[in-house]
Specification:
The chain has 171 residues and is of the alpha+beta class. 47% of the residues lie in helices and 21% in strands.
Length: 171
């Protein structure tokens, strides 16, 4: 991508039900995911002027709604993404992250490496699906898509068991 600092998310806000406080562990995972995403990203809506952008995310009936705004908060547009195609991948991602966390406690390094490679592969597969689903609507690079997947996965955390090892947007 062109790396233009104008085409980026400067602020990301979880809105509606997503804004409700969770356990401190889950809240921490979400804040880390948001920080990683806003710290480094490439985000370019197809029909909107240059940013940087303020982005509000909502989950409404298993759909992720992107409210794309100027930094001042003026609405530029909305995009709704069905999360149904991601459900199995996110569930599998949670399971493999849990397996990875358990493996690092006692497993041989080669097993840990194999699980981590599988985790990265699944993360990439899910990020590629996101890029496909956003094609023609929002342009982003693969590292940004991976960070979005880390954030989306964190939105579905329900317990400490679910969150173990979920971070990995960079890896």
């Amino acid at each position: 991508m062109d790396g233009d600092p104008q085409f980026r998310i400067s602020t990301l806000i979880l809105a509606g039900d997503l804004a409700k406080r969770q356990s401190s562990e889950i809240e921490h995972e979400r804040q880390v995911a948001i920080y990683d995403l806003t710290e480094e990203n490439y985000f370019r809506p197809a029909k909107d002027p240059e940013g940087p952008y303020r982005l509000e995310l909502w989950v409404i009936e298993n759909r992720l709604r992107f409210d794309i705004q100027t930094e001042a908060g003026d609405l530029l547009g909305q995009f709704i993404l069905s999360l149904t195609p991601f459900r199995r991948l996110i569930r599998d991602y949670h399971e493999i992250c849990h397996s990875y966390y358990e493996a690092i406690k006692t497993a041989h390094p080669s097993k840990i490496e194999a699980i981590d490679m599988a985790r990265r592969g699944l993360h990439n597969e899910t990020a590629e699906l996101l890029l496909q689903r956003l094609q023609g609507k929002i342009e982003m690079d693969l590292p940004t898509a991976r960070r979005f997947i880390t954030l989306i996965a964190s939105l579905y955390l329900k317990s400490s068991k679910d969150m173990t090892g979920i971070g990995g947007g960079r890896g």
